[in-house]
Amino acid sequence: MKYKVNFYINEEPIELYVDSNRTMLNVLRDDLCLTGTKEGCGAGECGACTIIADGKPLNACLVLAPELDGMHITTIEGLAKDGELTELQKQFIKHSALQCGFCTPGFLMSGTALLQENPNPTRDEIKTAIVGNLCRCTGYVRIIEAIEETAEVLRGGGQ
Amino acid sequence: MREFEYLRPETVEEAIALRLKHEGCSVLLNGGTDIIIQLREHLITPEYVIDIKRIPGLKKLTFSKEEGLFIGACVTMNELGDSEAVQANYPFLAEAAYSVGSKQVRNRATIVGNIVNASPLCDTGTPFYVCEAVMCIASRDGEREVPIEEFITFVRKTSLRSDEIVVGIRVPYTEGARGIFTKISRRKEVDLSTICSTVLRIKDSYRLAFGAVAPTPIRLPKTEALLHTKTLTPELIEEAAKLARTEVSPISDIRASKEYRLDVVEVAVRRSLERFMQGGAA
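The joint structure predicted for all components is written out below.
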């Protein structure tokens, strides 16, 4: 049986018929071809599939497809506007806060959600915001620094 | 995932009717952080999944000194942890909620789900045990209340009947109560408890609850009796820590050995009571 869902992806209204036994992650990647959101563990541990739903970071692998109905979702594809990267994306590049890049969309979504909620996070708050995201290459220091400098720049105190 | 029918009732009554209609072949979906994994791993294969998240009223989170705290069935870990009333009056409960999973998981996982799941190591279990929280349960016959100690009956077993739904948890408020939550895990974040505990002090009596040391979270009545009305001294704390060890029955598993858990129970009791002795508990 298919379930009709109406929701927004990156501010665009979508109407789809989805199977109950698939996840939001499957819908994003397979039905909408938004493959920036990655599947790592599929069990809510690695954060590679982090998206922002109604202002909050969630693991897309832990949401059933029919639950999408009524949600407002932002994925990694929704960050850059008109080809212009967000400050956080620029800072990830500046700080070389990635290596293979698989975890990067998830970190960017967690970082974006944090800065929307708290424009002035402490280092501990940044760490708490990204505990649900695993990076197996670069480590976390550069990622934390990138988020920190983004906050500074957005507050108008950047170098 | 096997195929199933997804149902989204809009009232508690409708949800109960669906539970009755599909008795034995349905599962309730709340935050889904456990259920969706169990569906994916084929650990459960229901024909119907009943999503209660959109039922108005189940997000209720209220506090008053007279009524205590009421946590509706769909209140998430982060909503509870972020609540000023909870931070002010039950800081150890907020800490327990924040210790679960990651920020992403806590935005979905619910407090009630954590309890109904009835894992022996549920992080929010021990604060409720020491507060003597009560599960509020609805069925077609009306509502009933069950103390949490009688609600969780065994590993992943509760006294919830198949035609009932937990609508919330009521947590009594005790003036002047102070609590200390402890979670010991292999790593600091996004891990399950190797053991967890809450020690509550009400004037000069103590309540101790431990998780991951028995088939359900448990209180430690002998240790509580030993401490009752006594002034804490290093000798008394030592005696209590040794006694606590005899009241638990941990097993060895992937996270730790039985011996390690026994030692850590002692450590958690000692550290919690030492903090009380030094006046350090919130």
